[in-house]
Amino acid sequence: MAFLTLVTVLTSALLLVQSPRASEYQVKAVFLFNFAQFVDWRSPPAQDPRAPLLIGILGDDPFGAILDETVRGERLGERPFEIRRLRQLRDIEACNILFISRSENERVEQILAAVQNRPILTVSDGDDFAKRGGMIQFVNDKNRIRLRINVEAAQAANVTISSKLLRVAEIVRTPPR
Amino acid sequence: MAIRDWPIKRKLTAILLLISGLVLVLTSAAFVTYEVVTFRQTMRNNLATRAQILAANSTAALAFANEADAREILAALKADPHMVAAALYGRDGRVLAAYPAAAAAGLIPAAPEPDGYRFEGGRLVGFTPVAQGANQRLGTLYIASDTKAVSDALRLSGIIAIVVLAIAMLAAYAMAAALQGPISAPILALAETATAASTRQDYSLRAPKFGEDELGTLTDAFNQMLGRIEEQKTELQQHAMKLEQRVAERTKELERRAVELQAANSELDAFAYSVSHDLRAPLRSIDGFSQVLLEDYGAQLDEGGRDSLQRVRAASQRMATLIDDLLKLARVTRAEMRTERVDLSGMARDIVADIERTTPDHQVEFAIAPGLEAEGDVRLLRVVLDNLLRNSWKYTGKQPQPRIEFTAVDENGDRVFVIKDNGAGFDMKYADKLFGVFQRLHSTAEFEGTGVGLATVRRIINRHGGRIWAEGVVDQGATFYFTL
What are the structural domain ranges in chain A? Predict the structure, then answer.
């Protein structure tokens, strides 16, 4: 019994230590969810208006249950949200929003090439993600999370980002090679 | 001055001003109220519109927790000095950004309140949802504006109302002063005419007529009344004049009659005097020659002859007395009168003393009140008292305890002298005959006398402007009253 209590206390302590990170991903989860409202996908007209809006997580999932909780019960219009954890590149085609975990940092270019010209909003908190051709990058700035957006990448993929969203973000370009 | 004593002009003006003032005040109040209500509504709508724009602009800032952007959006409110405060709350209810940046404590509510707009504590505050898309609420916008604009609007419309009110009241006063004329002018004219007519008693005045309304009717009626009064006054004056004329005529006639009467009277008196005077001479001859006959030839006559002669003498002597009395009466009428203060009590005592001295065999108890005085002619009044007292003395001759009083009473302000006896008296039905010449109520055999005395008395009293009358009961005495 005493052991169990100890385990609980230790677990709680561990959670407390992890709390800042958890808070960071909590914010990022909300941001991910909010992106859906400021982004317009040129979806094919025949698409079912009740088809779920798919958020894919590629690589190690840093959110845990947070993202699922954030979108639970929420709808965009009539579309419910759905979270999918992806392992393979070919699974990403159905996504509307694709979050690329830092664990995939090495093969970002490869992933982006795979989704090129598809109406998928690519998001990541990986270093220089936007400059490397990603659409939206989370940037940590003095305990705040800022956005960095590569508008050209989005335009190329037929993903329209609201000017309002652009207002609160830093615009970057892909440097010419 | 009490309101009811105000001149009618002022009353009318006051009424008109009061009514128009009331209407104006009510209208102005309605105007100001309408202005304020409308303004508040407009202000509320404006604030709501502005809040909606702000909310729409701040969706991304809220969605991505961008304080700087949120602050920048809110800072746009600087352009409007009436904006007091604003704030953006996140979904969790925490303040993301506030305006002004360094908002004083209490200016921004700690947590969002229910959506809506309301006036509270001199401010218009509102909470409006910030949402992107149809149902995605991102947070809440708080906005607060001062109500200076309302009070400014109120002040402006108040000033406008007061200025309009003042101008309108001035205009109303001018109009009232001008328009009360048709009502007050006839009344004033009427009042003026009435006052003039009553103070100067001039009923030929007429009030001017201004129109055919009720006041016109009143003026007509008043003028008719004045006309009637004037007619009646003229008539009355004519009557009075006629009456005066008649009185003058009558007076003239009376004067003429009086002159005639006086002439006739003095003629009569002269006639009586000369007759009496002329009668005495033959009478004296009759008596004288009868005496000579009796003394010189008495021896040659028998008893019957002498007795006849004696009777002739007695008769002629009686006739002489009669003539003397008549002469006295005539003299009384003709004599000059000298008016002075006369002591009647003293005069009565003298007469009584004389009576008692000459006729000691018939003693009478006299009671003479002291201090009786009158204005009149001494000689004539002596004749009056002498006659009346001797008259009473004579008629108490058959009374065992004769008593005569001379007093005076005051009756209706007149001094009335009274001579009262307990003698033979008289029957009241002959009272008016008492003072006529030769009128006698008793025979000479009973009481001697000529029947001239009381007639003389009455003449003297009349010449003094007085009256004489008598009361009596047979065998119980008589009372004579006279005034002077």
Answer: 23-171
